[in-house]
Design a protein that fits this description.
With 245 residues, this protein is mostly helical. It contains eight helices and two strands, in the order αααααααββα. The protein has a two-stranded antiparallel ribbon with strand order 1-2.
Length: 245
């Protein structure tokens, strides 16, 4: 979600959400407090949410490419699906490093090189998951802050309340923006409706025995693997570290 969508698109709420909306409208604060919370709490909160989705979407893409390395090791480059690794490999094949004599015998086989790359990708995949949970810890702490303004109440509401279909209101609000900016909500792939990861949480606050499966759903970022394939280009998310595998 971009930082402005939530602030401008209140009219898209359904009737059930209008009741929820009344909760944040009951909060009153001075213009100075509202402006301060928007700048120092709401905007960082939304940007951190987006970064978390970018971590998971890059992770999903690396999982797909890692699996492709194993399954397509014997195919020609032309037959392999579009990927960042495929672009680099194609460039190396067009302009190979010149080697002479016994050095040629030291080069690993293509299958071995694929397995080595996949092993490095496994490490990156785990690191990305850890980075996501680190952002969730920060968001948890931010969610725990006492509501001081209407903007805080609004952000907390849409990221913690669900519509009748069990979807976060924030996710529902962002569907139109995702589709209108070339994301997966404008295609039949259904990527945004698939959880990036799942985990279990207690169904009730004081009942740890009964648990439910929770999916993490997010809309497209620069790391969305489907968008990268459709557009045929990749520009890393500006708030993620460079990818070196």
């Amino acid at each position: 979600m971009t930082q402005n969508v939530l602030f401008k698109r209140e009219g898209t709420f359904d009737e059930n959400a209008r009741k929820v909306k009344k909760q944040w409208e009951s909060y009153e604060a001075s213009p100075e407090v509202e402006a301060n919370d928007r700048k120092n709490w709401a905007v960082p909160y939304l940007l951190l949410r987006e970064r978390g989705f970018a971590y998971l979407q890059r992770r999903r893409r690396l999982i797909e490419e890692r699996d492709a390395l194993y399954s397509t090791a014997k195919l020609s480059t032309r037959q392999r699906p579009f990927s960042v690794i495929g672009i680099v490999r194609s460039a190396l094949q067009r302009h190979p490093t010149k080697r002479v004599g016994a050095d040629d015998m030291k080069l690993p086989s293509y299958e071995t090189a694929c397995k080595d790359t996949a092993a490095r990708m496994d490490q990156k995949i785990q690191q990305l998951l850890e980075s996501y949970w680190e952002t969730r810890q920060i968001l948890w702490d931010m969610d725990s802050e006492i509501v001081r303004s209407q903007i805080m109440a609004k952000v907390k509401t849409v990221w913690n309340w669900y519509d009748p279909g069990g979807r976060l209101y924030a996710w529902v609000l962002d569907c139109l923006e995702c589709a209108s900016t070339g994301g997966c909500c404008g295609r039949d792939c259904g990527c945004c409706e698939k959880p990036l990861i799942t985990y279990r949480e207690p169904m009730k606050q004081l009942d740890a025995e009964s648990r439910k499966i929770v999916g993490v759903y997010g809309h497209c970022t620069a790391e969305c693997p489907c968008c990268i394939r459709v557009r045929g280009r990749y520009h890393p998310h500006p708030r993620l570290p460079p990818l070196d595998v």
